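Handoff note, outgoing to incoming analyst
You'll be picking up this chain. Sequence as last confirmed:
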Amino acid sequence: MQDLAGDPDPIEIGPRLSDQLELHGISRRGFIQFALGLTAAMGLPFGMAGRVLAAIEETQGRPAVIWLHFQECTGCTESLLRATHPTVESLILDLISLDYSETLLAAAGRQAEQALAESIARNQRRFILVVEGSVPMRDGGIYCKVARKTPQQMLHEIAPQAAAVVAIGSCASWGGVQSAAPNPTEAVGIPEAFAREGITRADGAALPVITLPGCPASPYNLLSTVLYYLTLQKLPALDAKGRPLFAYGRLIHDHCERRPHFDAGRFAEQFGDEGHRQGWCLYKLGCKGPETHANCPAIEFGDVGGNTWPVGIGHPCFGCTEQGVGFHKALHEQAEVESVAPPALFPDVFAEHPGGATLASAALAGAIGGGALVYAVGAGQRLRAAEAAEAARSSAVDQPKTESEPR
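Most recent structure output, in case you need it:
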């Protein structure tokens, strides 16, 4: 866990958000429920709900945010601004001071670049740098330019002055769709770009980078990260890839509503078949949930009702939050199951069972029931050999003895 509490010059804050709730059409009850939900989403204990509320309501200033766009489709920004939940975009823009965004800035040209320079100078070591999009490393990054500057030039100028960096979306986190083969621009994510370019803080210390992968990233994960920082004055616990553990600490497979069908061996074999229509597991259709870490099943997406995420509406997860999976594995390719590997064979759900069991079927049933297939077949062979030997002995005992007659 990385701590920013030691940064100098606490941020001075403006009007309190608690005084403006009515202007946003938010009831006090709804606001408390929203804060309680975010407390749980951040993995904080229930007793921390008061501090989260205070961070939202009583904060007297807003951390400055500079939002850069590189190689991307702007989908992460769109997902934030077009969320149907009425409080997401209003709360996030009230919690931060968005000083520069090439998508949302009213100014253009020289005025926009002047706003960027003034914000950096005014908020040294106190602003949060949000980057959306990958960095093209080939040919010095000439395939993406803003104000005649490559992403590398902008990162060298801006990143060392930031308190922390947030790489939002899969493109900024690890390269995203631009890094798919043949990757003509040699696109990489912000952590790799920093390592290859040697970008650190101005004092030479490592620059903390939080990655929020997703295509697009969930706006709630960004909001929760900002609230965590405002509440505890430090960054949340991160995994080895820089992702907040509260959002990316578990596999999609672990919370998927179709998981019981996986455990029971009920799989859709093709789109539109009986299993697919009945909501069975999509593993055999290429679902990457068993190897992808994200909180999609828990928070869903879009605020438009239950099951509003890819697997919920019947399409396999394609692993957009997982480096090396999304945009790299074929959609139909089956996932590597991390938590539990399914047997190679399952009985049909509606299988007929005529006649008695043969030796082979008994051995297979024993394997599925928990024994090893090799052991079951071997045991059957040994049992058959033992039965043959016993039959031979019995035959020898039962054969009548004949005495030779004297001549």
